[in-house]
């Protein structure tokens, strides 16, 4: 019988990989590997006698290349955004899917920075000086001057907003405009819906990114609101993890970002009095926002009193949930890649590989597509 190849690794690298992948205890991964916890714990303590096949399985669960486990020392820990979620949610920590999304976003930003260089991104982010000019005067990020400036910058008028074909179309239009005019990448990755709606990276040097939970139903306007909530954090130069749908006035920063998203999507001049859920549904659909967002804007404009506001809000929560999402056919690799990474990053990587700035292996890893699919787009 062929002898099993056994590998020796730095046990600290193995521990680092588990924790970075979101597995809190050794038994969490031992269960997946179908081995006794004691056996896996011994590997983390000594790093010795790990069968190659088992190390490949570990690498697969941790979403790491096998070569990572042969490093002499653990790499730096992932720099996570600040957690702005309420205490009850944040105490549960972050799942493996969310941590993977953060690693991917961080890697894509590093790659984009490397391909185009610091000077390119500094020029594209010249708008930061304008934002800082507003905020230096003590303005909140939801100040009318800032929201008006942004609407002009994104080149989408309130009339155009009302002509969007639906929530999915509205999200695509806003997303493309933010990427094109501000240079901010908008990624969509799968994460637990109850854990977070999105997060953003706004580091010391651009480019920056907004990451939206792709698990949210495209027929739900929640993704649109989250997009602008995260943009507010970037304007404040903050990297953050957010669940805007569960926010109280006690969370000052989250409330400010929610305020910004609501006032940008529905300026004061476009808030019309509503009397019932039917009216609310019609006008919310017109602006491609949720009924809850438009209802709050009515309350802020004092078109309804506190009693009516909470009464309608209660009625909304008691409505039956929307029908389950229809199963769609599996999209082609290019369509799936663009949906996840956005037009800007997708085109950036294709241009880079065709101009010999990166190799096909790097491009394939960045876009999640095989060599043949990338070559066919050349």
Structure description:
The chain starts with 5 loop residues before the first strand and ends with a helix. The protein is built from 18 helices and 7 strands. With 378 residues, it is of the alpha/beta class. The chain has a 5-stranded mixed beta sheet, with helices on both faces. Strands 1-2 form a two-stranded antiparallel ribbon. α13 crosses α14, α14 runs antiparallel to α15 (306-318) and α16 (333-354) runs antiparallel to α17 (360-367). It is globular. β5 (198-201) and β6 (209-213) form a beta hairpin. The longest helix is centred in the first third of the chain and has 29 residues, at 96-124. It has helices spanning 11-20, 26-33, 37-46, 52-62, 87-90, 96-124, 127-135, 144-154, 158-161, 167-182, 222-235, 252-265, 277-287, 291-300, 306-318, 333-354, 360-367, 371-376, and strands at residues 6-7, 50-51, 82-83, 185-189, 198-201, 209-213, 240-242. Among the domains are: 6-70, Orthogonal Bundle (434 Repressor (Amino-terminal Domain)); 96-265, no CATH class.
Topology:
Blueprint: E1 6-7, H1 11-20, H2 26-33, H3 37-46, E2 50-51, H4 52-62, E3 82-83, H5 87-90, H6 96-124, H7 127-135, H8 144-154, H9 158-161, H10 167-182, E4 185-189, E5 198-201, E6 209-213, H11 222-235, E7 240-242, H12 252-265, H13 277-287, H14 291-300, H15 306-318, H16 333-354, H17 360-367, H18 371-376
Parallel strand pairs: 3-7, 4-6
Antiparallel strand pairs: 1-2, 5-6, 5-7
């Amino acid at each position: 019988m062929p002898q099993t190849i056994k590998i020796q690794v730095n046990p600290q690298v193995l521990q680092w990989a588990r924790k970075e992948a979101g597995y809190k205890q050794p038994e969490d991964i031992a269960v997946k590997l179908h081995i006794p916890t004691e056996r896996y714990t011994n590997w983390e303590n000594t790093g010795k006698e790990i069968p190659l096949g088992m190390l490949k399985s570990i690498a697969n669960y941790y979403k790491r290349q096998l070569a990572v486990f042969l490093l002499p020392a653990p790499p730096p820990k992932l720099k996570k955004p600040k957690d702005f979620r309420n205490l009850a949610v944040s105490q549960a920590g972050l799942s493996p899917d969310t941590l993977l999304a953060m690693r991917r976003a961080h890697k894509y930003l590093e790659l984009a920075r490397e391909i185009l260089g610091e000077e390119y991104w500094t020029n594209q982010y010249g708008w930061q000086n304008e934002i800082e000019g507003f905020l230096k005067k003590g303005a909140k990020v939801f100040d009318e001057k800032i929201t008006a400036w942004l609407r002009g910058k994104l080149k989408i008028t309130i009339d155009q907003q009302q002509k969007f074909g639906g929530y999915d179309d509205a999200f695509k239009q806003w997303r493309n405009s933010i990427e094109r005019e501000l240079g901010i990448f908008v990624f969509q990755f799968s994460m637990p819906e109850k854990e977070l709606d999105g997060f953003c990276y706004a580091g010391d040097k651009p480019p920056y990114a907004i990451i939206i939970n792709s698990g949210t139903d495209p027929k739900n306007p929640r993704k649109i609101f989250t997009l602008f909530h995260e943009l507010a954090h970037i304007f404040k130069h903050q990297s953050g993890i957010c669940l805007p749908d569960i926010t109280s006035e006690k969370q000052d920063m989250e409330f400010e970002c929610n305020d910004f998203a609501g006032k940008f999507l529905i300026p004061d001049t476009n808030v019309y009095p509503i009397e019932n859920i039917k009216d609310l549904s019609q006008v919310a659909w017109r602006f491609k926002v949720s009924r809850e967002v438009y209802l709050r804007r009515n309350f802020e404009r004092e078109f309804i009193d506190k009693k009516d506001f909470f009464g309608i809000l209660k009625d909304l929560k008691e409505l039956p949930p929307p029908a389950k999402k229809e199963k769609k056919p599996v999209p082609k690799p290019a369509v799936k890649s663009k949906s996840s990474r956005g037009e800007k990053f997708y085109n950036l990587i294709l241009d880079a590989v065709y101009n010999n700035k990166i190799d096909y292996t790097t491009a394939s890893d960045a876009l999640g597509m095989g060599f043949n699919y990338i070559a066919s787009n050349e």
